[in-house]
Amino acid sequence: AQKVTQAQTEISVVEKEDVTLDCVYETRDTTYYLFWYKQPPSGELVFLIRRNSFDEQNEISGRYSWNFQKSTSSFNFTITASQVVDSAVYFCALSEAVGNKLVFGAGTILRVKS
Amino acid sequence: GAGVSQSPSNKVTEKGKDVELRCDPISGHTALYWYRQSLGQGLEFLIYFQGNSAPDKSGLPSDRFSAERTGGSVSTLTIQRTQQEDSAVYLCASSLVQGGRHEQYFGPGTRLTVT
Q1: CB of B36 within 8 A of CB of B51?
Q2: pLDDT, average across residues A28-50
Q3: Which of A23, A90, A98, B52 has the fewest CB atoms within 10 Å, i.e. the most exposed one?
Q4: What is the b/e burial string over B95-112, where b = at least 16 CB atoms within 10 angstroms of the residue's CB?
Q5: Quick one: CA dihedral B7, A45, B96, B62, positive or negative?
Q6: Spatial separation of the C-alpha atoms in residues B115 and B5, rounded to whole Å
Q7: What is the mean pLDDT of chain B?
Q8: Cα gap B109→B115, rounded to integer Å
Q9: Which of A44, A100, A104 sits opposite B108 (nearest CB)?
Q10: Distance between CA A91 and CA A48 in Å, rounded?
Q11: B43/A91 CB distance under 8 A
């Protein structure tokens, strides 16, 4: 069965601090897809990144970076030099096939204080 | 281009009434998904449609829930005889599912309150 665990319920940081959001997943499939979504206070889920299980390259996009490690079944998300606008709930999700349903973690509330 | 739209944005209904929630996916997207988000249960998958294939209904919590997708585009989620535990935000998403692009794009949701 698929499962996504985001152990950090809530994180508070001061602006300009770096912060890492943890995501650990479980799946029996050898091919799968991992996602991160952001849900700001406005409520709409915003897609951030998709990672395929067969591509273990880490990715950087501006202040965001993602560390995918199959050996530990983890797909962690780091925000460098956090800003108040980064305050949101962040969800990690797993899909076992292209176009298949997403299984979400419980989410991590990130509060960035000025 | 236009994103996923959902209507109504808010719906308050009395216990026992039926409700219909509508989703307009991104034009050209072949897959459409329904999820719900509640405080106690987080984000839960309900149902998804992919092209002309039979929908995956494995997430529907009871037979009071049903959904259809007409013409491969607009979808309606129907909840019959609503119960208080149905109160949640119902989210619709769509996906292109081709060319390596299969991330899901979400609409703003419909907040359902059953009194």
Answers
A1: no
A2: 94
A3: B52
A4: bbbeeeebbbbbbbbbbb
A5: negative
A6: 25
A7: 94
A8: 19
A9: A44
A10: 10
A11: yes
Q: Would you call A45 and B45 a contact, using CB atoms and an 8 Å cutoff?
A: no
* Beta carbons of A47 and B108 less than 8 Å apart: no
Query: How far apart are alpha carbons B55 and B32 in whole angstroms?
Result: 10
Spatial distance between the Cα atoms of B88 and B66, rounded to a whole number of angstroms: 16
Rounded to an integer, what distance in angstroms lies between the CA atom of residue A9 and that of residue A91? 11
Cβ <8 Å between A44 and B45: no
* Direct distance between the N- and C-terminal alpha carbons of chain B, in angstroms, rounded to an integer: 37
- Distance CA(A41)–CA(A21), nearest Å, equals 18
**Residue B22, class by beta-carbon neighbours within 10 Å (0-12 exposed, 13-18 middle, 19+ buried)?**
middle
Amino acid A57: pLDDT: 81
Cα B103 to Cα A21: distance, rounded to the nearest angstrom: 20
For A44-65, give one letter per residue: b (16+ CB within 10 A) or e: bbebbbbbebeeeeeeeeeebb
At residue A17, the pLDDT reads 98
Per DSSP, chain B holds a count of helices (H) and strands (E) of 0, 10
Q: Parallel, antiparallel, or unpaired for β A59-61 and A64-69?
A: antiparallel
Q: Across A40-106, where does the E strand assignment appear? A: 46-52, 59-61, 64-69, 74-79, 88-95, 103-104
User: Is residue A39 predicted with pLDDT exceeding 80?
Assistant: yes
Point out the residue among B42, B91, B102 whose CB comes nearest to the CB of A45. B91
Kind and range of the H or E run holding A3? strand A3-5
A-to-B residue pairs, Cβ atoms closer than 8 angstroms:
52
